[in-house]
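Appendix B: complex inputs.
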Amino acid sequence: MSQPVAAVRHILIEGNKSYHNITEDLCSPTEKTPSREWIIAFSLASVLLGLYIFAIVWTVWKGIGEWGANRSINWAWDITNFVWWIGIGHAGTLISAILLLFRQRWRTGVNRAAEAMTIFAVICAGQFPIFHMGRVWLAFFIMPFPNTRGPIWTNFNSPLLWDVFAISTYFSVSLLFWYTGLVPDLATVRDRAKGFRRKMYETFSFGWTGSAKHWQRWEALSLVLAGISTPLVLSVHTIVSFDFATSVIPGWHTTIFPPYFVAGAVFSGFAMVQTLMVITRKVLKLEQYITINHVESMNKVIVLTGTIVGVAYLTELFIAWYSGYIYEQFAFYNRVFGIYWWAYFGMMFCNVISPQVFWSRKIRRSIWWTFFISIVINVGMWFERFVIIATTLARDFLPSSWSYYRPTWVEISIFIGTIGLFFFCYLIFCRVAPVVAIAEVKAILKVAGDQYIGPNAKYGQGNKVNQEH
Amino acid sequence: MAAENTIVLYGIYNDEEDLKGAVKAANAAHLDIMDVFTPFPVHGLDPLLGLKESRLHYLGFIYGAIGASFGFLAMTWIFVSDWPTMYGGKPYWSVPAFIPITFEMTVLFAAWGMTITFYTICGMWPGVKAKMLDHRTTDDKFCLAFDVTSASDSAVENLKGFFLNTQAEEVNVKMM
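Resulting structure:
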């Protein structure tokens, strides 16, 4: 083998699958009538989506005054949610792009669903800054275009505008990457379908045939898209952190933010991938494709990034003390022991302490532990953003304007509603497209299938490959 | 791409190794392969088929360069000449602040340009009907096809013999 590959090989496809079995297993969720679990989940997601629409209409109708954000704490629940969702999106790109560049084969089991998660998470994230604008019908002002208002252009020096460019680029490039990967699999579904479904998949698969030259170009395209998505995903959260880091607020104005935000984003994103995958593999019966080895690999990423985030928290505190600058010291004293102390300790416990259980192999390979810790991390990463945003603004320069922030029912509804929006999209995706990349799984069958490698291997080829290392 | 009313003789193989063996045998016998259809990218097939490396990434670089220049020059024109505005006492032409957007435009143009080029040169678009020889080639079968529109009967017999010798599971003829 000429390509660089990991020396340790895990079984990534269990159950002695043939190529045809893979097609059957991965296409069947799109072909069967929905299961009872799916219908219940979809109904629940639809109700939450309804709540979202109601709360948004309420906000637009009555104005931003319906939110708890106030004169000094002008970024609060909304931007917390924005950063939380954007961070979640990052794992999808990390899995699909960075792991492709590193030739990690376990990505093939989870990349499709993780990329879909990215797209839906970015959609959810976008809701918050857009509706925070207040007069949302003027949202197109954020786009620079020749106009009759001067022309008044956007401020290209502002990190908020960089964010507009970063997130819209991120969304559209992720969509291209995901969809181009999906086209061959949609063709597989097409060639099994009949009647109206066939017509539908004929349209969506763009006339894919699987010709050798097309595969070659498809692989070339995937590789370059992976190559440019990697710095893109790092730039997106770096720029999100610039929203804070380029301001002059003590507690925000720190150079550690870009790497700290990116690590936190990957951390929270992997937690969300675990939450989704644990449910998806069970409900869609994909345990032989999203194996316990996949789960373990992702838990390793979680313990690594969680520890990086922990180091960043402690570095912040140390540097604040070491600076000898009382205003900086106060900002961090306030962050830990101030009015929102419970959020800080919640964050520390959920993000730094709880993932350390994954040092144990037994816990890394336990589905229940994985699911539980992934939820804890999702909560913890929400606290992190809340701590950074609300705690800092609640104690700003003038003690006379110190205040306390409480979310109103409208903000809470919008947040819970975006969870509904997310699952609404994800559940539809599970029904119309294969959640595991069919062609990519077939391509690794002979190096990662349990009939080729591992203790029960039946065929020689895998063994031969093993001996090379 | 094959022209209208092409007659195609194709064999179906069960495994990519059989297909690779057949392609090698076809090369040895100087047979002119029309195309190969597989359910997933089979590595090692491209050199056997004599396919040159895709030049898509060169185009990607060019699109990226266009995006970078467009982003940077547009911001320069807007802030220096069209409507100069002072922000925070910084110079009009504040280059470091332009870097993030220039980068995003590079990625945006490269990604969209390459993807659109990919679909265009592959002749793929919504509404295009796939010219499939056999519907199982998106599932678990591997197909090797020869164009026999203008081939003599003896040449067709020769090809059928070739498929027999290379353990093809089925041999079929189809009008495209």
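Chain B has two domains: 7-39+140-175, 56-121.
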